Amino acid sequence: MSIYAVTTIRNPGGDLLQQARVWARDLHLPLIPRPLHGSMETFLEKKGLKAVLIASHLGPQVMTEEGLLRYHPNMSVPRIRTLKRGGSDHLMEACGLQPGMRFLDCTLGLAADSAVASFVTGPTGKVVGLEASPVLYQLVTQGLQEYAIDDPDITAALRRIQTRYGRAEDLMPTFPADSFDVVYFDPMFRRPIGNSSSMQPLRPATYHRPLDRAMVEEALRLAPKVVVKERDEDLLRSLGAREVLGGKYSRVRYGVIHREEGARWGN
Fold first, then answer.
1. Dihedral sign (CA 15, 20, 21, 27)
2. Rounded to two decimals, what is the model's pTM?
3. Distance CA 64, CA 4 (A)
């Protein structure tokens, strides 16, 4: 039984109903008609769902037991604006990104990190994001193409991101060797950091799998550098990171793993 499903707003009309049918078909999810009465929370509980993708006049929405989620570029906006003013970004420094580079985000989420990477790598670069949650994939893929913001540089960065639906462990082997310059993992995205009310509805909609050495090894086939975001420095070291970077006042750390370092794991 699926933990995800597709539905619509009440009295959706033909266009929204057809949109929901297409999503259900493409994402291999059940399409469940929206009851005329009762809350969406009750709907989730009765159907035993973790999250539901809703076709609405405002675009795709995701409802979980923690609340309603609409697409928003989130912290990518102030981060990009900081870079435009000549400031720095810890992740971009860890990745060493430059215009024209190729970046693979294996934990896309709301694509905040990918948006910053897309801004930095520019129109000659390439940013690909992998997302294993079907409802989150649809929400973000459409949001990246439709979200309007009054900054053409940010809008262009969002539009350039390419999304792929599936688990990173399944999709990474489909790319040729050396397809990217940097591969990035954010396992922390799957776990709460504090009590962010804006991120809370996201948690039940995500796919959870701990990062392991096999995935890092596969990532090193695709790129000479892998960057992992994590609070636990010991975990980063166990994954092969020889270099750990981060802000002075932040618990977040970025472990940098180079291909030649990964090859020494077995020694």
1. positive
2. 0.91
3. 10
